[in-house]
Amino acid sequence: METREASPAHFLFTIESFSLLENCGIDKYETKEFVAETTTGMKLIIYPNGDDIVGKDGDYVSVYLAMADKTSLPGNCEVNVVFSIFLYNHNSGNYLTSLGITRRFLAITSEWGFSKFISKKVLSDTSNGYLVDDNCVFGAEVFVVKSSAVTGCLSLKNEIHYKRDWKISNFSQLGDVWKSEEFCAGDHKWRIWLFPNGNGDATGRGVSVFLYYVGSGSVNARDTVWIKNHFSDEHIERTTTDWFSTSSNNWGWPSFTELANMNDPKKGFIVKDCLHLDIEISVRAVAQ
């Protein structure tokens, strides 16, 4: 390892509230794609508690450079890359950097890097300057400098639970799908889609419920959905934690519950053709 003043030419990436990674259960994070001197896009892969590729070592942070889409490289082709990985020192204004190393990227060997890039003890000691106000900045340089750096940011959030509920009348007349109005949770917009007679493979067999993300960037959220019981506390409850983005904007349950269970008047989920639907969302991380 060495230090230098100049910032990396191709990529900078900030992690805010680094200590919350473990609380959010994020053991591995892949950054957005960036383009340098390669024929394919690249990305950084960061393991805040160490990787299991070269042996699990929770006392270190592991960092790797990887092809963003290894299928874009035919099996008989290769990309030879000279790269360095960086960590910003807030105290000195310099960067801790790996020496430029040359590696051959293939479809079957699509990532290279450092299992022991920096010890967690050194990183967490604020006097060293790498983690200040619980923020740290990683970077990468690949081949020759040609363009301005592409920046990204992963923001970890202290969980705040946002709740919303609906009283859905005339349930038997909803048609194929009921869509909620847009609502805000964690400074992001969402919608609920409910398919009274199921969706996809569950059509005719179950009730489908999906949470849709209405926004840009990527959001990691934990959501719990209830179909409430009118007669007792025996509600139907489902929970999931997923990444939402513009390209993958919905997660949910094709068969939240069976139609026979829902439509049985003795079960108490639909009374006077009315259904109660509740949701609780907590946003855990945001990536741009």
UniProtKB/TrEMBL annotation:
Pfam families: MATH_2 (PF22486). Signal peptide: none annotated. InterPro entries: MATH/TRAF_dom, TRAF-like. It comes from the Eukaryota. Residues 8-142, 161-281 form the MATH domain. This is MATH domain-containing protein. It comes from Erythranthe guttata (Yellow monkey flower). The lineage of its organism: Eukaryota, Viridiplantae, Streptophyta, Embryophyta, Tracheophyta.
